[in-house]
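To: structure desk
From: M.T.
Subject: fold request, one chain
Message: Could you run this one when you get a chance? Sequence is below, nothing fancy, just the single chain.
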Amino acid sequence: MQKQSSIIIGLILIVAGILFLLFQAFPGLAPQIDLAVHWPLIIVGIGGFLLLGALFGNPPLAIPASILSGLGLILAYQNWSGNWASWAYTWTLIPGFVGIGIIIMGLLDWENREKLNDGFRLLIISLGLFVVFGGFLGAFGQFWPLLLILGGLFLLFRGHRNAKKNDDSDQPLEKHS
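Reply: Done. Structure tokens follow.
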């Protein structure tokens, strides 16, 4: 763990040093990178470095990596569009980011394979909440009733499939003589 932390911190320092060296070597480059506009990309970058740590031997780092990267992307969208009111429903994506991290961790670590279902479940719940909150809070405009219809159809089909599965399991087992 100590070795992996040193590698991640070392990579962050190297990239930061390269950026500062570029800014000193090419003074015209710094004004083109406006941190007032692009600051969320710093958060995405930190998430990217954590993802590298997950890929190079510490799979649990995938969870904070996906959370930071996802939050950075949300903040980048809000900062560039000025749509800060979207936070009223985009916060529902955070459990989905955790789910993505669990999925990545499960794919990288054979011992955590059983957690893949948990990750997918979190992702589905998060997307469902996003659709519901976004629908009621105006993210989908006049089409939010269609989301209710789709949700109802999903529940009907799922209920029908589960009922059919239960009917099949109620059949008595044949005894072979």
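Reply (cont.): DSSP finds nine helices and no strands in the chain. Let me know if you need anything else for the meeting.
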